[in-house]
Request: fold
Amino acid sequence: MGSRDRAGRFYADPALAAFGGRYYLYPTTDGAEDWSSTTFRVLSSADLREWVDEGQILDLVSDVAWADRFAWAPAVAEKNGLYYFYFTAADNIGVAVSMSPVGPFIDSGGPIIASGAFPGRAIDPSVFTDDDGASYLVWGNSVANVARLSHDMLSIEEPSVVSWSHPTFREAAHLHRRGDTYYLSWSENDTRDPSYRVRWARGASPFGPWEDHGVLVEQRPDEGILATGHHSILRLPGTDDWVIAYHRFAVPDGDGFHREIVIDPLRHLPSGDLEPVTPGRSAILLTSDALPETLD
Ligand code: FUB
Reply:
């Protein structure tokens, strides 16, 4: 394995999923000024603690014809045995398909959400699949958009788009459901600012209306934990146990371009409210022998 294909220590924007008895993390590859990575990797784990680098799954330069910069903030979904990888590329959102969660993923040929087509920036996709099997794409920066995905997962049903603004909404909108309650969570402030953090709201449908319930995860400067945001939420299969994956400035010496991923428990209270998360001290453990990356 050449140095250009090695995993690095810095990852952000974690999309956490469970497929076939294993956990998968689809992050932004971090560690470069202005988030200038052009490739995506996937990590896998049996226990959410120790993670193995499964390698590169998409390279904008060689695998995508319509954008070659700013590989950010992916999401993933499985439907009918196929895996759909949604990704940001130069302020557009694309989708690529694979028969395996670790790829290779084949780009669908054009953006599913083109830059400027809907309010806000076309970045930060996430996917929610409801109990009835209908899937939704959520995305945006400054405005959050929710749309139903088509049955083939490769386009949205445009008339279904609902746009949502809130004074605190910056980016990284994420939907989940427990019982009859839908939860929208998102990041506020700037990922380069220690105050970057996750908020949440309750609603009665994937489209809201949303009732803001305040902060879910935020910095703990006393512990050196800063800029806790851009998360995803996962119910562990077969349980009512939930976890939240998010990034923070790497400890020590991180910043908005050198971020690392943490996974913490997420508790739903008897009222249905979310209990504020106490940020864990440890980032995920990468056991790949390719670590750490060296610039040689
Ligand atoms: O990682 C690049 C960008 O930083 C993401 O798109 C934002 O959500 C922020 O985390």
